[in-house]
Each structure stands twice: as C-alpha cells, then as structure tokens.
Amino acid sequence: MEKAGDTAESESVVQPEVPPQVETMATSWELPTELCCRPLALVALTGMDVTYNAVHRAIWDAFSANRRADRVPLAFRVLPGDHEYPKCKTKRQSYEWYIPKGILKTGWMNKQLNMVPAVVVVFFDLDWDEPLWREKQMECATRVEVVRASLQGRSTRVAVVLIQKNAPLPPGEDMVAAERAAALCSACELSAKSLFVLPHTDHLLGYIIRLENAFYELAQNYYHMEARRVKSHKEFLNKTTHQLLFVRHQFKIAFYNEMKQDTHTALKHYKQAYQHLNEVRTHDTNMLEIKTVSGFINYKICRLSFQHNAPLDAIAQFRKHVDLFKNKVGCAELAFEHSSWISKQFQVFGDLFDEAIKLGLTAIQTQHPGFYYQQAANHAITRKELCRKLCDPTAKYPSTDPLELAAKLDFYGQRPWRQGHQSIDPPDAQKEREGILSLQLLELTVDHSWIIIPLLSSAVAQFKKYKSARMKRYLMVQMGEEYYHAKDYGKALTLLTRVLWDYRSERWWALLTAILTCALKCAYLVANVQEYISISLELIGQYTLTSAEEKTRIQMNLIRVMSGDPPEPEPECVPEAVEEAKQLWTSDAIQTVTQPFTIELQNLVPFVECKAGFSLASNPPDKHMVLDVYLSVRCPFPIRFSKLSVLLSNPAYNKHCTLADSRGIANSDAGDAETGDLYLVPGQVKHHQFLLIPTVEDVGRKVEITSVALELGTPGTRSAILHWQGGGGDAATNSSAPRVMSGRRREDQPAEIDWDGLSLYGSISVVPRPPRVQVQLKHKPPALANEFYAVELTVESQEDDEITEVSLHVGLKDGQDTSLESTTHICFDAPTQEDAETFIDKPQPQAPGLSVGSLKTGEKVTRTMYMRCLQVGQRMLSVRVVYNIQVSIGKQASPICCTCVKEEIVPIETVMPVDASIRLKSLLMDALEQIHYDEPFLLLTDISCVSPWSIRISSTELQLTEALRPATGQLESHIHKLQLNKNDRASDCYCLTAPLNKIHQGSVLMGEYSIRWRRADADDSIPYVMTVLSLPEVPIMNLPVMVEMELPAHGRVREPLGITYTLHNRTSTVQEMEVMMEPSEAFMFSGHKQVHFRLLPYGKHILTYNLYPLLSGHMVLPRLHVNMLRYPGTTDQIISKMMPTHVFIMPTGKEAMEEVFAGS
Amino acid sequence: MADEALFEFLHMEVVSYLFKTADEEKCIPILENMGYRVGHSLAERFTKDSSRFKDELDIMKFICKDFWTSVYKKQVDNLRTNHQYLAFPCGLIRGALANLGISCIVTAEVQNMPACKFQIMIQRSQ
Amino acid sequence: MTGQRLSKMAVCVAVISKENYPLYIQTIPTEDDLKFHYTVHTSLDVVEEKINNVGKTTNDLRELYLGLLYPTEDYKVYGYVTNTKIKFVVVVESSNTALRDNEIRTMFRKLHNAYTDMVCNPFYTPGDRITSRVFEKVVNGMMLQDS
C-alpha cells in the first residue's frame, strides 16, 4: 500500500511549522483551563514562613514537591494568616423575583479551584512543654479567630497543626499533653479531631502524609456539604423563569463532586445539566451562550466517560451533542463562528480520545481520533470559506469598540456589548450591527490555514496509525491545498508530488488530474522548472481528464519552457504571486541553468510512450542485431524531440543507438535524410531501427536494454532527458492493474502499427556461430575394462573458407558420476608398455587440447585418442572441435573473427574382459574348504572370456604370499600365448603347501593372480595390459596328528603286501594314542590289531603291517582307526581323509586274471 | 432440456466453423480465449448468490461442484473427447478462476474414453 | 447539504475494479464531485481491511455485503465486495434516516445483478470503464433526484 521511502520522509513535511505570527483570538468557546484541568480540593496552609524559616520550608516542600500519584489529590496554597478570602454573598432567601442573567459565571470555577479553600490549616510552633503556654495558647486562638472571621459565612473547615521539636510520647502517657490539648481546643473552639501535632523529626514525610490524608477527609466533607447546599435551592426554582439556574446548579453540584473526587456522581449531574440546557429555548441572542456552555458540559461528560472506561458512552454523547447543534447556526452573518465552534468541538473530542488511547484504550480503523481531527479540519475549512463569503475587508471598524469587554465577560458565551441580556431580541439593533461587524472584521485577521493545517496533520498521523493509507493521502492532498491557500507554494508542491505516485498506480485519473492541476500552479508560482516539466508531461497525456483546450494550453507552455522562455501564468492564481513568479522565471538563477533535467518516466504517466526491444531473443555473432524503437505521443498537437538514445548493458554499442534531430522543438518540417526525424504526431507510431554488430566478447552473453532516453528541448539552453528504465513502460503499464486482454485496436491508431500488439525482447543472447565441420568417430565398442581403447577421430571442414587454430578437446562430459572421472584416463599419445603399468594412479578424464592447425574447405584430419577405463559402466564422451573463422557482416569491409565450436557426445560402455575364479582341491581331488599346515593341496584358476571381442593372453602369473609356497619346485603358469574367444575358458593348476614355520590365525591370504592381455585384433602398437585378480583368503587349520602311509602301487593275490603307517605328533604335549585295525574280507593281515601307545612331543611312531590279499581287483583296504584320548571322537574322521582307501590287487597267473575279469 | 442442446450445438458449430476458417494452430488459442471470456462472465454470475469464499479451497470446490454442474449438468461424459473440443472448457475454467483471483494454466487429457482429466496448475505470483 | 430531495436514495454509487481503480462513479449533480471520488477512494482502506481479515478472525464475514464502512458527519459510506473482488460503494447522506440496512442491502443486490448482466455482455471488455446504458439506468434509479 504504502510506498517505501515515503513514510519516513513525509513526517517532516506533514508536521506543520508554527506560523510566524499566530493570531489566535481568545474566543468565548475556547475551553478555559479551569474547565480542562482535573479539579483538586483546595487546602490553604497558613502561619508558615516558607522563605526564612527552614523548618517551615521543609514542611512546605514535603507537601508540595514531587507529589506522586499515590498521594491524595489535593492542591495546597501557602497563604498568610490574615489572608482575605473572597467574601461570601448573603444567602438569597427567595428566588421569586430573581431572573438569572446568564448560565455560568466566568469566575466561578476559578474561585472554587484557587480561591475558596475547603480547609484552612493554621500552623503554629508550640511544644507541650512550652514554658509560656498560656500566652502561646492565646496567640494561637487569636490566629484561628482571624481566619474564621475572614471565612465568615463559609463552611470551610479550620484545622490547627502544632509544629513541635520533640517527638511525641505514646498516646495516653503524656498527661500534660492531653491536658493542654484539651485546653487549646477549647480556647480555639476547635474539635479535638481538628487539632494535629507535627513533630519535625526524622520522619517528616510520613507525618505529612498522615496529615494530608486527614485534610483530604475534611475537604471531601466540605465539598459534599457544598453540593448539598446547592441542591437544596432546587425547591425554590421554577421551570419557566429559572431554566438557566437548573443548568447552573447541576453544573455546580457536578463540579463540587469532581473536587470531592466522586466522578461518578459528577458525571450524573453533568448529564443532568446538559439535559436542562437542552430544554432551554434557543434563539439567535442566546445561541452562543448555550453552545458555549453545552460545549463545556459535553467536554466534561466525554472526559469523565473516557475516564470511566466507557468510550462508547463518550462517543455517543459527542454524536448527540453534534447532532443537536450542528444546524443551530445562530446569527447568519456570523456563521463562521458556528463552524469555528463545531471545529473546536471535534478537535477537543479528538484530543480526549487520543488522550484515552495513550492511557490504554484500543481504537479501531473505523473509530479513532483521526476522524474527529479530520472533521475539525473540514469545519475549519468551512469557517474559512464562510469568512471569505461573509466578511467584507473594506468595512470600517466601529468607532466605539463593541468588543472592548470581550476579555472581561461575567458569563461564558455572552456578547460583550449586551451582557446579561436574555430576551429574544437584541436590546439595541444598532449596537448589534456594530458588534457583528466588529466580529467579522476580527475574523478577517485570522489566518485560517494555520488552524486547518495542524488539524490535518493530526489526522494524518492517526489515519496512518490505523492502516488507512488512502485516507492519509487524501488528507495530505488537503494539506497541500491548504498550503497553497496559505501561499506556501513550495511546501504545497512537495506534499502534492509526494502522493501523486499512489493515485497513479491505482489509476484514479480524476483525482490524479485534480492534484496535478494544483501542483502545476505551485510549480509555476515557485518556478520549479523540473516539476513544471514533469507535471506538464502527465497533464497532456492520455490518462488525465484535462479538457482538450487545457491540454493545448499546457503543451504550449511546455514548449515555451523547453525553448527557454517563461510560461504563461496558470489560471486562478493570486495576482501578487503571479507577479513574483514572473520575476522568478526570468531570473538568472533559472535562466542560467543549462544542465539537462532528467525525468524518470516509469513513475509517471507521460504523454509519450516508448517500446524498445530486439526482434529476436538470440542472435549469432555474424548477423546484425536488430533493435527496434517505437515512439508514440498522446498530446494535443505534434512535438519534436531532439535526441533519442538507447543504452545497452554493453556500453560499446551505445554510440550506434542514438539519433539526433536538431530542428528545434516547435519546428514542424518534414524529416529529411540528413539528420534523424523525431517529430512525433499524435496517434502515429514512429519507428526507428538500429542495426548492431555483436562484439566478440558478447558471444555467450546477453545484451540487455538498460534504458531509453528521449531528449526534449534544446541541448545547451534548456533540455529534459526523459528516461525509461528498460525498454519503456510507465506507471500505468507497470501498475498492478493489467491491460485487459482485448483484441481491439485503439480507435485513434492508424492501421499500420498495432501498439498493444508490439512484442519485443528486452534482451538478446549472442549465441556462437553454428559450426560447419563434420566429426566422425571410429571405434569398436564396448570398451574392455583396463584396456587402451582406441577411438579414431576424423574432422572434415565444410566451411567455405579456411578455418584456423583447429583444436580437438576430448574428455568425459561434465556432470557425470565422480567415480567415473577418477577411473578414466584419456590421452592422445599412443600408450607405451610403461604406461600400461604406471599411470593408473593418476587418471586424467580430460585429455589436453590437441592442436591440429588449419583446414581448407573439404580437408580432413584424423587423430586417434585412447581411453582407459578402470571400472565398468557407461561414460559420456565429449568430443569438441574448436576453430576460428573470418566472417564479414553485411557490407562491412573488415571481416571479424568468429570462434565456432562443434561438439559430439558419444556414450561408451565398458565391460569386463574376463571372468576369473579359483578352486581348491586336495591331492585326492576332493574339494577343500580349508587347508592344513604342511599338507599339500591344489589351486586351480579358471579364466573365462566374457568380452564380445576375442582376447589374447600373453602370460599369467601367480604371486603367493609368504604363507604359501609351491609344494614342489617352481611356480609355472601353463597359460601363455593363448587366444580366448567369447565364452572360452582356460584353467591353470598349482600344487601348494602351507609350511608350519608360521602359525596364522584362522585364515591366510593366498596372493594375486595376474593376466597380461589385450584384444586379439589389436594393433601391435598397443601394449598388453595386466589385469590383477586378488585371490581370496582361505581358512587354515593345524592337526594334532598326521599320518603318512606307505603303500606299494599294487599288490598281487596271495602275495604279502607290506604297508607302514607313520604317526607324527604335531603338538608340544605327549599324546595318548589308541589304534585299531579293522578286519577286512579282502585281506588277512599281521600286525597290531589294537594297540595303545604314547607319542612324545613332535615325535613319531611307525606301525608296520603285512597284508595278505585274498581277492583281486580294486579292493578296499582294511581301515586303520586312530583315536587320540585328548581329542576323543574327532581324530579318526580327519585322519581317514589323509589316507588312501583302496589298492589294486592283481590276480596271480593267467587263471587268476581270468577270474578277476570274470568276476567283474 | 432444450437449452443444453442449444449449448451443445453452438459449441460444436463454433469448433467446426473455426477449424474451417482459421489456421489449425490458431484455433486452439481462439477457442481457449472464448472459453476464458465465458468462464469469466459465468464466474461473475454463479458466485452472485454464494457466500464469500474463504480461500483457494473454497474456490476450487465451487468450480468443481456448482460451476461445473451449472455448465455441464454433471453429464461430463457429454464432453467431446477430441482435443479441439477441450480448448473451450479449459479456457472456461481458466477464465472463471482468473476472475476469482487465481491465475493458472489449465490442460486437459483423455486417457480412458469417457473420462477427461483437467489439470489446473496454479501460478503463484510473487 | 440542504435542499429538499427525494429521500431513500443514494448520493453516490461507485463500482471499483479488482485492482482498485474506478470502473464507474456516478454522483448527484454537484459542484464538487471530486469530493465523492475521494470519499469512495478512501473507503477502500476499510474495504481492504475487511476482506483481508476474512478467514483470519473468528467473526467471519461470509456475506458479500460489508455493511457501513464508516460514517462521516455528512455521509454514510456502505460497501459490498463480490467474490470476484469487484467493489461496490454507496454513499448516502447521514441525515437520510429512511435508508435502513435492509434497503441498502437491496440496493447492492440490484447493483450486483446489473453489474453481472453488464459483464456478461460479450461486447464489454472486463476491466474497462462501464458505459452500459442499462447499467446506468439502474444506478440512476438509486440516486437522489432533485424534487
């Protein structure tokens, strides 16, 4: 809602300055201070010398200085003991013949508040042990007597305070004191309750507070009695002749109650007073008095209602008050007086409301003090207008001043020339006329603007607080207008121009026009050239509702100003101000300013519109960028601008985007070819086109229109630069309100250019020139992991001219998985055998650029690049060819150098060349899951080719860890110089053993198996690469016992066959062994059938058996069961796997052989 | 009812007339704009007696219930399933929502013949 | 603001766009119709506050009729906002006690009906100033006439 920036600054302007000479006439309805203050009970303190007596001074200070809110509400006065109080009038016995002369006496409130005390206190220095007691007692009694005499007829309370040096004894202990106190009371005719003792010791303030509480009670009592006394008159009054007294008495009762601090009762009586006042018949003669007093009473009612936290009552009372009186103008010749009175009523209520808010009341958007200040201002404005209408400045002031007594009225609201007169007709018609005339002449001396502006300012602050931005702005407009009336044109202009923006953006053209019209007058009168131009630009535009003649007049003036001449005066200006303005416009201060004024158009709704932009969103560097500028004016008649320039984000172009027309603002010649033509005819769209050559550094960047500047006037004398941010647009086109979708053409628009349909780009991207080369890739996918994958690149130039500085850039495309980048190496250098082994540690995903020189039209160049991928997966390979070429644009002589880029993206899949696995077997060819120390086993490696391409293996190699060694001799690979086609397999076999020289925990690492290979069809220049496979870990176990069996290769039936079993203890402890030979059907044997022995640590035992084969064939050997007592149940099974289970027995002789075969 | 038939015929005629007279690619925007204007007006008329909408949900409920029933009598299968026939209703929805303060892009697709899915993408300005 | 006029009528009727610019303002013949423009314009502060609070406060304003926006000494300003955020503002003289809430409500309904009919005219472009004669006739029927 609120424009940022406007808020903080506006404060200073909105706050009106105090006018140089404030001439406030003390009008009778001005609220007197005694009415507005909070009434406090009056207590007179006598018998104190506060100037010379330090003790008295201290006492007085304790009463009067720094009274906090928790002290009782009392007003103290120090008076001399013989002070003369106002004389009490003799009590009226009957009201029968009494005709009141007015409602409320002007002196009464002041008398109650400041002159007639509720309590008079006599201070007297006297201690109980005073040696001259009797004399002192007499003196005190005399003083009391003097006071009483002065208060004769009044019921004011009298109290005596004895100032004592000594602290009092506890009550009842000081017999002398009690006795003397009683004597003193009797001497002074004082009740014991009215005698006080004040010791001036350490706790003075405490004593004072107790004292004043006692006085407060006495005072309340006094005012209570006073109120009752007034009330008692009621029965004597009659409704016909004493109407005014009903009002007066109720007012007095209420006021006494207020002094008593009984505000609820006070409010009740003020309401009754108001009620009685309403019953009084009003006529022109008493109208002012009634309005004045009703204003007073209304003030009291509202104030007390707010105080009682009943704001709605206060508002209702005020509404009623205004409704009752708003049409009671009274004397028509003094109607301004009525407006002044109402204005005051509103202002006072606003103040009361605001006061209540400061004390915690919450107001809302639709009910807050701002409304009352606004109304007060409105009535003040009415007053000003009535004054202008009713008061004749040429009239002569009456010779005898009818207003002589104006400051000394007996009753509030009466005319000074006929005080106390209550009949319907004025007593002296001549005097009445003179009185009215003098009041009119007095009104003419009032500077109304200085009443209106502060009221508006108060209202602005309130509406701002209650979220009413528009109302705030309206009030600021009113303030501006009031400053205008007050002839402070500079301030008026500042205020008006400040709010313009909001009316513009909300498109309230009628209001905008009105404000602009006033602002133009101000700008003329203070000769503010820049504002004058800026306001004129808008007033002659399409949105303002100014009449055609007015627009013509304003445009003529604008042309005068832009030609360096003073404009014609604006209409309806005060003649003296116009004279001053004429001086200003021709003054040196204005004439010598040759600096151009810059006016930002995006904040205005000017008469000239602009649309600038590119016809394309992007452009190659070898073509012109086309920049179109369309201009259109909506002023009454044609106008010539002097210069058009478009500013771009790269200022290098700016000198090519200007157009000057030097023929002068008023020249209407048709354009010629020599200079540009900026003569704009209303309703005709002017089109200019600039052709720009893109600069080399803008390739890949955007060129943006930063602003458009259109110069009006004559450079060097007076000119204004109209400045659009971006490519045009003003407050109307940029505002939130959209231009509604409509296919309609503006009626005043010639058919050739549809302004609304113009659509341009605010910026243009300079894109690289499209390349004209062909790139071909030759390679055999997929790539195999770890190999040097060769890709052959062929570049062929299809440009018409030679291309230079051709370079190739190959690498992984950006933005791929980082694991791919760290496992890819790309280069143009042919790899050596050394490369095959070294550079895996530092892969290079982008090859350094390779320069290939120049290419003529149709020429080709071929290069090979190598890519080595350590990991499988898909990679996007980017192949870029970068080159330079000289091109010429249009007719331009010198060609420019363009850099072109051709990029090809190729996906390359990498797969594994081989799949390798291993197997472990025992020497009996059983699959092993674990190995044993010193027990030989077999390692088989299986290689299968999974590549779609055949590979050639040059060699394989097994590298063992120290945990293993070959069981016999050297390790020798059997796979070498072998070609594997897809799905071919090759296996290698090694016999290994784990020596017991080192004990490993659980399992051992076996080592690595490496394969040297390359593609079978690879060029010889490509080295073999080594793919290394890690062998798995294998579990290893140590057996407590090992059995070796010696057995001949075969036996023969009925020929003895000797076998030995050697049992080794592999532990460091003695082992108890149980061995049992199982009987067999095929053999008889000799030797221990069952034996029990001990094996020493690392010792051995040999068992020898002679077998006697009975049958021939592949026979099951008798089984040897070995049991170790330390490891019951486990040994036998493990050991049985170590030994052969069968032996071949040949038959004896021919028959035997036959028998064998026959039996099989 | 007769008025329904009138609307049906008119719509069909508008579509076929446009496709006969204008370029193929211009037809859809023209139809869409016609729908927009009609939706804009209908939103004005149909919300005349409803209470104030609290939020966007209220508005969408109104579009799906009252608005649609008023225009298409719940017989949503009556919609022609050719895309050129959907330009108008798309615009209709867009226009109605725009008038109620929601700017959006409406697209329609037909997956299974009698059903038509309108997708409304609300544009959050600022 | 004196002079005998036909009672029960408005002194100013305005239609304000979604974006808060005036689509139509008709006032009784007066020297100072600008004052009514300001009255209508400033009343938008209250309208805005009221519709912004919809859904936020407990006493939800679900009615299109916003009621009395604010009273000034001379005029009462009433507001109405359609679901499409078009605002109607009616100004009546404060002295006019014949117009009760119900009459004002009826006035707004009539205005809304007339506006809707006007918008449904295909020759009207939404957002343009209202120039329809039918609409004007309806408005004139609500305005004070010199007796």
TrEMBL record, chain A:
It comes from the Eukaryota. Residues 286-541 form the Trafficking protein particle complex subunit domain. It holds the Pfam family Gryzun. Coiled coil: none annotated. Residues 1008-1123 form the Gryzun putative trafficking through Golgi domain. PANTHER family: FOIE GRAS, TRAFFICKING PROTEIN PARTICLE COMPLEX SUBUNIT 11. This is Trafficking protein particle complex subunit 11-like isoform X1. It comes from Branchiostoma floridae.
From TrEMBL, chain B:
Signal peptide: none annotated. One of its GO terms (biological process) is endoplasmic reticulum to Golgi vesicle-mediated transport. Its main location: Golgi. CDD domains: TRAPPC6A_Trs33. It is found in: Golgi apparatus, cis-Golgi network. GO terms for cellular component: cis-Golgi network; trans-Golgi network; TRAPP complex. InterPro entries: NO_sig/Golgi_transp_ligand-bd, TRAPP_component, TRAPPC6/Trs33. Belongs to the TRAPP small subunits family. BET3 subfamily. This is Trafficking protein particle complex subunit 6B-like. It comes from Branchiostoma floridae (Florida lancelet).
Automatic annotation (TrEMBL), chain C:
CDD domains: TRAPPC2L (cd14854). One of its GO terms (cellular component) is TRAPP complex. Gene3D superfamilies: 3.30.450.70. It is found in: Cytoplasm, Perinuclear region. InterPro entries: Longin-like_dom_sf (IPR011012), Sedlin (IPR006722), TRAPPC2L (IPR044760). Keywords: ER-Golgi transport, Transport. One of its GO terms (biological process) is endoplasmic reticulum to Golgi vesicle-mediated transport. Its main location: cytoplasm. Belongs to the TRAPP small subunits family. Sedlin subfamily. This is Trafficking protein particle complex subunit 2-like protein. It comes from Branchiostoma floridae.
